Amino acid sequence: MGIDRDDLKKLEDLIRNDHVQHEGDIVFRQGAAFEKIYAVKSGMYKSVKVDAEGHEHITGFHLPGELVGLDAIYPKKYGNTTVALTSSVLCQFNYAQLTDLSAQIPALQQQLLRLLSKDINNANLFFTEQTAEQKLAGFVHNLLKRYEARGYSGSELILQMSRQDIANHLGMAAETISRLLKQLQTKGVLQIVRREIKILDQVELLHLAGCKAGDEQPINPLNSNVST
Amino acid sequence: MGIDRDDLKKLEDLIRNDHVQHEGDIVFRQGAAFEKIYAVKSGMYKSVKVDAEGHEHITGFHLPGELVGLDAIYPKKYGNTTVALTSSVLCQFNYAQLTDLSAQIPALQQQLLRLLSKDINNANLFFTEQTAEQKLAGFVHNLLKRYEARGYSGSELILQMSRQDIANHLGMAAETISRLLKQLQTKGVLQIVRREIKILDQVELLHLAGCKAGDEQPINPLNSNVST
DNA sequence: CGATCAATTGATAGAGGTCAAGACGCGTGG
DNA sequence: CCACGCGTCTTGACCTCTATCAATTGATCG
Questions:
Q1: Who contacts B145 (Cβ-Cβ below 8 Å, separation ≥6)?
Q2: Measured between CB atoms, does B33 come within 8 Å of chain A?
C-alpha cells in the first residue's frame, strides 16, 4: 500500500507478538485507558457496551482482518468490552507509536484515516433496515461479504455467536431470530444446521435486506434545490 | 489546541471563503467525488442517503461547529446528499491539503483522528434505544447537548426539520413523533410550540432516553472470563 | 446418563405502523 | 384585510408485527 521496506520495518517493530485467546477471553474492558489498537488475525470477537442502567448491548462483531479500538481514540478510553467468541488470534499496535510513525509515512497516515472513515460508514450501515427480516438478512449478508472480502467462502459461514447475541445486536428477541432463520430456510434462501449457514440464494438474501447502500445515485432528495 | 501561529496561518490559507446558503441548497450530492470537508458555521443541514430501491433515509443532522464529509474519505465519494434545512453558513477545507498539512503539524493530525473517532462514536450512539419514546427522547437530548456544547442554550432549541424528517431519521412514522411529543408535553418534560421546544425536565428527558452511553463501568459482560 | 445451556415452537398482548380525516399556519392574491 | 389554498401537523380507528411468557426439544459435557 505504498510503504517502502524501511518504513515497513518500523511498522513491524511496533506490532507486539500475536496473542492467542479462547472463548470468553477479554481484549480490553469498557472504561479502560485507550492505548492500543487491535487487529483480529483469526477467530471472532464481540464488543459489548454496558449503559447507565446496566443493560448490555453488543455493538459489533469483529472478523479476521478487522481492527478494534478505533472508536476509543476520541474519548481516550475504550467504550466497550471486547471478548473472544471462540479461539482467536489478535495482534496489537501501540497507538501513540502508530501516529508518530504515520506523521513520517504519508501512506500510513492516509491508510489510518481511511480505516477510521470506513468505520463511520459501517456504523451507519444498519440504520435503514425496517423490519426484523430486513435486519437479519442484512446482518447475514454483511457477515458474508466481510468474510468474502478476506478470502473466505462467499457461500457459507459459521456463526460464532449465539442467537441471543444476534438478537441483542440487532435489537430484537432471540425467538424472532429463530423463527426468521427457519423462514429463510423455508424460502430456500439459506440452509442452516446449528450455527453453520449455507447461502443458497445470495441475490434474494440481498433483496430481502431491503436496501444496503445503493451507491452513486445522482438523485435529487426531496426538498432540495436543483443547482443550475 | 497546540498549533502555533505559523501553522495556524497555513491552516487558514486552505479554508476557502464562507459560503451562505438557504433552505434546500445542496452542499454535495451522493456519489460525487470526495474532495472537500465542510464545517457548519451557522444554521442546520441534513444528510440524505438514497438506497438501491430509491428509498431516502436521513442519516444525520448537522449543527454549527460540526464537520460534514468525513465518512467520504474511505469510499472517495460522498455517500449522501447534504442539504441546508434553513439559511446557513458553511466553510470548506480541501482534504488533500489538509492531510498534507497534518503530516507537518502533529497536533492537527491528532485532532483529525480524534474527529473521525468521534464520528464513529456518534454513529453508534442510537443503536441501543428500543422503544419509540426512547428514540425520540434520545434524539432531543442529543440535539440539546450538541447545541449546549457549542454555547447555545441548554434549555431550549428550535427544530429546523419537519416531524417527517425526524421520523425518517429515527425510522418511525411521523404520526408517532406527533403523538409522543404531545405525550412528553403532557408529562411535563417538554413544552412545544410548533418547532420550538423548551426543556422543562432535562433529567427526566435523559431518563426516558433509557440508556445514553454509561461510561467507565468495569462490569463483566456475560460470557466473559474474569482475568485474574 | 442426567444436568445444563442453546434453540425451537406455540399462544398472547401491546407497541407502533398505516390509512383516513381534520385542524392549524402561512403565504398569496383579490 | 380577508379568503383561499397548500403544506405541516394532529388526531382517531384499525391491524400487523414482534416482544413476551411458557413449555419442549436438542446438543454438549462432565
A1: B154
A2: no
